[in-house]
Amino acid sequence: MGGWIFIAIVAAVVVWAIAIYNGLVALRNRFKNAFAQIDVQLKRRYDLIPNLVEAVKGYLQHERQTLEAVVAARGNAVNAAQRAAAAPGDPAAMQGLAQAEGVLGGALGRLLAVFESYPDLKANQNVLALQEELTSTENKIAFARQAYNDSVMQYNTKRESFPDNIFAGMFAFTPAELLQATETAGERRAPRVSLK
Amino acid sequence: MVVLYALAVVAVVLAVDVVLGVAWRVISVEMQVPGRVYIWGAVGTAALILLVSLYHVLRLSGGGEAIARMVGAQRVASDTREPLERRLLNVVEEMAIAAGTRVPAVYVMQDEAGVNAFAAGYDVSSSVIAVTRGTLQVLNRDELQGVVGHEYSHIVNGDMRLNIRMMAVLSGIVFVGAIGEFLMRGSGQSRNRKDSGSGQVFALGLALMLIGYVGLFFARLIKAAVSRQREFLADASSVQFTRNPSGIAGALDQIRASAAGTLVANRYAEDMSHMFFGQAVKMKFAALFDTHPPLEERIRRVSPGFGPAQYRSRRIPVEAAEQEKPHLVPAAGQRVGDQAHAWGRSVAQSVALIGTLEATKMDYAGRLLERVPPALREALRTREGAPAVVVALLLAPSAEVMAQQLAAVQTAAGPALADAARALAADARGLGAEFRLPVVDLALPALKNRADSSALLAAIEALIHADRRVSLHEFVVLTLLRSQLQPAARPAKADRSISQLGEEIRILLSLLAHAGTQAGAGRAFAAGAAQLGMKDAVPLKREALSLEAAAAALDKLRALAPLAKAELVGALFATVTSDGKVRVSEAELMRVVGATLACPVPPLFDSLG
Description:
Helix content of chain B: 55-70%
Largest interface: A-B, 17 and 18 residues
Number of strands of chain A: 0
Radius of gyration of chain B: 32 Å
Helix content of chain A: over 70%
Oligomer: heterodimer
Number of strands of chain B: 8
Distance between the termini of chain B: 78 Å
Number of helices of chain A: 7
CATH architecture of chain A: Up-down Bundle
Shape of chain B: elongated
Strand content of chain A: under 5%
Structural class of chain B: mainly alpha
Number of domains of chain A: 1
Largest sheet of chain B: 4 strands, mixed
Largest sheet of chain A: none
Radius of gyration of chain A: 23 Å
């Protein structure tokens, strides 16, 4: 009789361990998928930028620097994204990507600000449509990031809470990195405003 | 929900049994009602309710698309170029990412001006999101995001399945009442034949109908109770997805501020009232039956510190609003060939022209027609060609705008008209400004013979709005066509005085004043106002003139007394001729005003430019 009870307890523990393991796997895959979604949106932004630059080039003869900054930032961000996609959740790659994206976001922000001072641009249907697409893509990236962080939080919470943390350690579930605010050191400084 | 449903079914079954019991005693001689009557009555009623519920569940399992089609919503094409629809699609995609679901099909209820939206579908994969046209026009991007986020909550939390089942199941309860009504009507008719049994059938029907109303009472109560809790949840989820409480709070605030509110005119609105974003149907006992909590309560829960005045002052308006509601741009010398002609007559002499027909004018019309290119002249005579000529005349010279305009015509009236207009476009472009309105005049007889005049008007409106601005010329053509093809009923009494319609006159005079030179607009308006003794009147700004306002003012002015009309026409002439010249655009406007007021103005020019 005692033997049966012992076997039943062992079986229950095994079933319980399997449930925890499967739960961790599901959450890990969910945040990996969430990261892939960010990747999709980032690619979309990389594809959109050449179109935008092409559409506004004619109008912005005097804003060469702004346009070149956007193009250069795009190139860096594409490289960083490729490195990060190879190892989702890896802290170093994540930080590199966040930084490159931050620079690109800043360059795009300046470009959109420049638009405001060109009434011709605002009247151009193509540019307006591209601007809406860009706004939407920026939002999509933000939301994808948000969804990624939410799923990472769920995963980390489960991984660290008792008793899941015992099994997480046993099966090598490493902690996942949250995406931080995408500011570079330069951006964290307060902007200097000069009125000429 | 299940408990309430079971209670409702039991209540209905009991009620039916009571009716059956009474009916048995009346009809039969036996004093004791046999138990089997109750049992069969109960089983029959329950089976009926279940069957009808099942039928509706099956019917609605077609998913969200079936429901969207039921309320007459149109699918938004994924490659739409319309800015507002594009924005909606983008917002829906953004929210899909935030909520971690796939992107649903997007529909727009084109004819609804209220601000409302719903999500429907049996499961996430077959779900749809539909919003009203009013939502697109009133809400800005953040607010739209809030509304769409709210609908996503319904998708993610399985509210739609719950909603659809509830709709199906509750209709089973309500069905009993429908049978009662049917029996009562049927027996009511046969009663005329003095049928002995029909009185009892009538009573049975009446009783069943009462039960039906009891069912309806419970149905609404259930719907309201479930729905209100779900709405709070959805509002909260919207904040979770957008991380922006002021989006959804702002949307709710805009609904509170807008005249149209959230009411939906569609006849299925009552059935679906619990699926919408806001209260779609007005209820008598709002506190009990409203499917949605009060707006104030919803705003308070998502954003306790929400200050409406503060929010409204900072709110970014809808960027595309101006594109949706194009304002009237009086074309002061903007159009090619809008040359000014010297005008030597006084105001009184000008007014005397009304309704006259001189030989020189007849001649003018004839010479005008001769100069019209043969292809256009041929087309004008045919029933198919005439509308195409009118469309071709309104096409813009720039190829890009023209393509947009033709696309708008194609969606409104079909490809045949667009193709025919495209073929005539080159000829029409070569036509001088002074020919345009006369050519439209020539097209009118052929247009009036067509049964689909409303489709044509819709096409012309779509064309005019395609480039997001309405020129004076376009306004003139549209007003002329409207008044000729779909004449509004004559006003019952033409007895209004000038002072009673002062505001309308101000709009009209401003429109005419701005049609002249920009610099002389103020002087032109003053000249006209002085004629009418309106010393203090101030002209409206160019931006303040809208197509709708001008058309409405013109329509109201038809109620002027005949003598007042003469005075008004005098004032209009004074405005137009204040600089001693008459432009083609001014003459066109005078003509169409004259035509609307039933004071025909003859062609004002003798010579051709």
